[in-house]
Amino acid sequence: MTGKERLIELLKLLYTKTDENHLLSTAQIVSYFTERGVPTDRETVKADIDALNRCGIEIYPVKGTQTKYYFSDRQFELAELKLLVDAVESSKFITSKKSEILVGKLMTMAGEASAKELERHLYTAGRIKPENESIFLTVDTIFKAINAERQIAFQYCEYAPDKSFVPKHDGEKYVFSPYAMLYNEDKYYLLGYSEHHEKGGKIITYRVDRMKLPEILDTPIVPRPEGFDPVDYTVDVFSMFDGKPCKVRVRCENRLMNYVVDRFGEDVQTSIVSKERFDAVVDVSVSQTFFAWVFQFAGAMQIVSPKAVKEQYRQMLDKAQEQLK
């Protein structure tokens, strides 16, 4: 083993076996190389570690009855890696197979002893993992198109009554100008402009996990409207579902303030109505999604205005009640 090879082997040893809680002494390092037939002494170990430090790789010495060393140049702290592992294992977007691979890679970023703490196996109620591995290629293709400012073509799919995943419109490809990727409630959405949408050309979103066979076209995207901001669009449109944007006043029992803030942020406009209730004025997309959100509170939240939205909600409730007769 040459001096360069010994230096690399020493770095691998310190990277995999040490951290601030697990150190190796000079004697242990000498013994490691001796067992592999590589003559090494204390002076050689110190010289090699000094060389690594000069190269910007931080090997930290701890003085005592004998000097011990550990690799201290890790990009992530153990607590940060634990957060990343939890995020990967709990994500509905990442398949079980890909989760296992990604967690394995994250574990390599900690020392072997600390890596055992990353075997967390987080369990989340109702968290169903997808099976479609191709979604990673879909996301990659979309980001390339966004960066190149080129249109894409893809099939858009839906689940049939037999649960088969089939393309809509007989497999006809959608042509779309991608502007930005959005991530909401564990799902990717693609925001952009469609010239051939059913309701006429407009800015809309598509679920990325329902897109199939995307390809990048040579056609430049339709330019974004002047002043258009994807962040503002995401905030203004409730849960990124189509519907008419509108300011709606809802009257809520006090216990619902957490839900309102969680959904609309701390800057949501609110006012106290009584000891038991408050009003909130929220920017939403008036749709079944919004009505379902209100309905889940079983009367503890009521739509106050506009009158047309209140009437639309009442009609939906009447229709649902008719189904129970």
Characteristics of this structure?
325 residues; alpha+beta; Arc Repressor Mutant, subunit A; SH3 type barrels; 4 domains; 6-stranded antiparallel β-sheet; 4-stranded antiparallel β-sheet; 37% helix; 27% strand
The chain-level structural class is alpha+beta
Number of H/I helices? 11
Shape, please? elongated
* Percentage of residues in helical conformation: 25-40%
Overall strand count: 13
Order of helices and strands: HEHHEEHHHHEEEEEEHEHEEHEH
The major sheet is characterized as:
6 strands, antiparallel
Question: What is the second-level CATH architecture of the largest domain?
Answer: Roll
Question: Quick one: CATH class of the largest domain?
Answer: Mainly Beta
Provide structural commentary:
This protein has 4 domains: 3-71, Winged helix-like DNA-binding domain superfamily/Winged helix DNA-binding domain (Arc Repressor Mutant, subunit A); 78-118, no CATH class; 140-231, SH3 type barrels (Roll), CATH 2.30.30; 237-323, Alpha-Beta Plaits, CATH 3.30.70.240. The strands form 3 sheets. Strands 4, 5, 6, 7, 8 and 9 form a 6-stranded antiparallel β-sheet that branches. The model is unreliable at 122-128 (pLDDT under 50). The protein has helices spanning 3-17, 26-35, 42-54, 78-90, 96-107, 112-115, 135-148, 230-236, 257-264, 288-295, 307-323; strands at residues 24-25, 59-62, 68-71, 150-159, 165-167, 174-184, 187-194, 202-207, 211-220, 244-253, 269-272, 277-286, 301-305. The protein contains 11 helices and 13 strands. The protein is of the alpha+beta class.
